[in-house]
Fold this sequence. Notes:
Chain B has helices at residues 45-51, 82-87, 103-114, 119-132, 136-139, 152-164, 182-195, 208-214, 232-237, 242-249, and strands at residues 7-16, 19-29, 34-38, 62-70, 73-74, 89-92, 170-174, 200-204, 217-222, 225-231. By secondary structure, chain B is α/β, with parallel strands linked by helices.
Amino acid sequence: MQLRLIKDKIISKLMLVFTLASVSLVIIIGVGLYYRSLPVLNNSSWGQLLSSSVWKPMKGLFGFYPFIMGTLWVTAISIIIALPLCLLTSFYLSEYAHTRVKRILIPFVNLLSGIPPVIFGVWGVLFIVPLVQNHIAPHFVEYSTGYSVLAGGLVLAVMIFPLIVSIVNEVLNTIPQELKDASLALGATKWETIKKVTIRKALPGIVAATVLAISRAFGETIAVLMVCGNNAIVPHSVFDTGYPLPALIANNYGEMMSIPLYDSALMFAALLLFIIILLFNVISRIILNRLERNLAG
Amino acid sequence: MTSTPHISVQNLNVHIANQHILKDISINIPNKKVTSIIGPSGCGKTTLLKSFNRLLDNTPDVKITGKVLVDGEDIYDPNAEITHIRKKMGLLSQRPYPLPMSIYDNVAYGPRIHGNPKKAELDELVETQLKATGLWNEVKDRLKAPASKLSIGQQQRLCLARGLAVEPEIILGDESTSALDPTSTHIIEDLFIELKEKYSIVLVTHILRQARRVSDYIIFVYMGKIIEFGPTEEVLLNPKQELTKEYVKGFIS
Amino acid sequence: MIKRKLEELFIKILMILATILVVGSFFLIVGTIFSKGLPYMTWDMITKIPGGGFYIGKEGGVLNAIIGSLYVAGGATVSGLIISIPVAIFINMYLSGKNFITDVLRTVFDVLFGIPSIVYGAFGFLIMVYFGLRASLLGGIIAVTLLVIPLLVRTLDEVIRTVPGELRDAALSLGSTRWETAKVVLRQIRPGIFTAILLSFGRGIGDVASVLFTAGFSDNIPTSLHEPAATLPLAIFFQLGSPVEEVQGRAYASALILTIVVLIITVLSEILIKKFSKHKI
């Protein structure tokens, strides 16, 4: 009798420890990365690190500006491509498509989300890079190898399709049919209803999905690394090569212990990613949680 | 009420998310009788019932003050042993919720967690309880089958057998027949009448005829307050309070 | 009036085109991987380890990476479950009623889920440096475990929340302790646990950024936790850059194997999720 109660107490304490340990991972990761970035931070200030374009690890010069710009370029391109396509798809699936069509199509969106990043990378090398090199770039520039921020953005766009479509779809499903019916009953077409009623109602959800997609694109590593060209130069056009932050970390881990401060600089890059993505995630989750609660209450 | 009360509620107040659900409830539940709690939906009947075995503890933002004495022991005392309290009371909820295991294991679940019975003892106990709920002849050949394979009515009787197997003193029923067909309802009602020989029974119901059929006493709850409490015939046929009169006549629902 | 009708038609066509593009991209990817990988798929590919060095050797297959992937994803899923089942149970059974705390905890796991795998890889590397470990199977398992914990907790949490409160009340009413009640709930959600395992395994087997620093790479099948291990994504990533055609072929074949494995896992988990939601009471 007493034994089971003691067992329950012990197990509850153990579970508490497990929960605290895994939750505090957020803090431990941040502190750990910060601690390992200290050598490079002692060497130069945050401002210098973020704004300098000089990347000469052998001389101890670490300017992250080109990498930050590389990340911003590919992320921006991917969102610009993916967002309109995904919104149109979500509206089609939730407002126009027949239930049967929906039941066939949505599983493929889920399947797409299951494909590992490295496969997207291989596909990028085999399909997107030649596409950019042979069919897109020749219309705009004299020569491109195809390895470019555009290729990175395109691959990333496809990677974030399922994320945006599934969240926006879920948000659209929560909008009461009565609301849409009210608009339709006034003689509005379906599109007018979407434009004037549905979008307005779904806006917070769309924003949250976009912010999540941005943070996903921001942190994606391997697929981007394989198609971006990886030159530490600030890109000026979509056909220039770029070198996003995650790719920098992944590409140089091999030598990071052999050059002084290099490991610290790479950990600083990881810290930057961590902070930015943490912020984006917290914002979008707060929006989504609030949406969920409004619905429940 | 000649015998000592089995459950004695003293100045019980329950707030859930800043709503005052139960207002200053004081009541004595008689021993070895069937007591029905009636009242319109949302009046706090189920909350009152759940306060008897501290199932309210799992409700978000709940605040409970006052005392509930079971056999003279305050169950809301911080030192009270909660599993011991709950063992004293079997609960039969609105819909049957068989545990995800076999018919046999459902009945044996309670005895197993509370002790270390031998196989032969368990076999006998399972048989006794399944017989007590009239289920034995229907299931004796498939005791190892999952409980979810039974019909809803059979599942509800299994849940009753499961509750009886831990040897409770009190049975709490929360609209226990509302999901059942008429035949199963009849069987369960008869069981309640039979079981009051050995147990104190508290039922929540919104069917007045059922309350009349099975109960000895009736508590009428309205807007979180006890309006009237007394023997069944008195409350239903000769209510003292205006509100009770209106409810019994069907003006409030 | 005509203008409104035209606008409606135009936007509808646009929507259909967008949908075709979004859904079609899946077939484009799978088609590309199949057409490139199939010619290199031989029996040797899945039964032999690479011969003559992974970057230049023309012989053999990618058995080392297949086994390594199973070890890493399997090990991480098992250790992830050991941590996440108690966490999910704790949030749902022990903290029930404490809405603010559970909201905060759930948000933290959502946020952890969003942290990119390269950060988990970098952090895993820090742990290894701290404990003086070298790139090894163990290092890979640690990094991937960290990566899958948020996924597992979120999935299990969602599954446990589908269990009706009345079932929990029923077990509690029989005098069960919270832990005994939790065991009943765990029985009830067995298919859900299996779904979580599949999702975690799928994530673990496909991820490369987390194992890049931590697992190392080897042409051999690891025989202990302290030996370096290859995984399929690593095999793809490294061998794709080789100038030797046969080695590149191994990368394509690995990509095909990985794609098939992941697709099977995704389909299975989709079916399970559907089944599971049907059995909800």
